[in-house]
Amino acid sequence: MKKLLIYGYGNPGRSDDGLGIKLAEFAKQWAIENNKWQINVETSYQLNIEDAEIISHYDYVIFSDASTKNIDGIQLSIVKPKKKTLEFTMHSMPVEYILYLCKQHFKKTPVTLLLQIKGKEWDTKEELSPTGEKNLKMAIEFIKHFYNSLYSKDLNKQYATSMME
Predict the structure, then answer these.
(1) pTM of the entire structure?
(2) How many C-beta atoms surround the C-beta of residue 84 within 10 A?
C-alpha cells in the first residue's frame, strides 16, 4: 500500500503563517480517528536539508504552507526536482530543492505536491484569521478527497487482484 506524508510548515505563533502546521495537525488527528494508518505527518518551522531523507520513505508527499500570494483559498501545484545554489545565509530550503536532494542522494522521487493556503494576518498570535480558518477548511476537504481517491484505487486494485487468484 502506498505511503503518504503530509508535511506542514510555518510559524504557528504568527497567526496565518501556521496554516501548514494546522493542516498537518488536522490530518494526524483525522488519520488516528479514522484508522488511516497510511498517513504520516511531519511539521516544522521551515524546510531543511534533512527533509530529503524523510520524504525518501514515501510514495506521495504533500507539503503544506501558508501563502501571501493572490490565490483563491488554496492552490495545489506539482513539484519537480530543481537544483538550487545554496547561500551562506539561507535559512529555508525550497520544496523543489528538497525533492532534488531526495532524488540525488536517495534515488527516490516521490510524487510531491505543494498545497498553499491563502492567509491574511501575520501578527504574533496563535489564532487564525477568519480568512485563514475558511481556507484551512478548504485544504482539509482537499486532503480528505486526495486520500479517498488515492486509496480507493489501491483497494479496488487489491480487490480485483484477489478475485483473479
Answers:
(1) 0.88
(2) 13
Interval 47-75: pLDDT, tens = 999 999 999 999 999 999 999 999 999 99
Long-range contacts of 90-93 (CB under 8 A, 24+ apart): 91/46, 92/46, 92/47, 92/48, 93/46, 93/47, 93/48, 93/49, 93/51
Domain holding 120, by residue range, is: 4-164
Contact 4, 59 (CB under 8 A): yes
CATH number of the domain residue 40 falls in: 3.40.50.1450
> Which cell numbers hold the place of 142?
482537499
pLDDT band at residue 112 using 50, 70 and 90 as cut-offs? very high
Any idea how long the chain is?
165
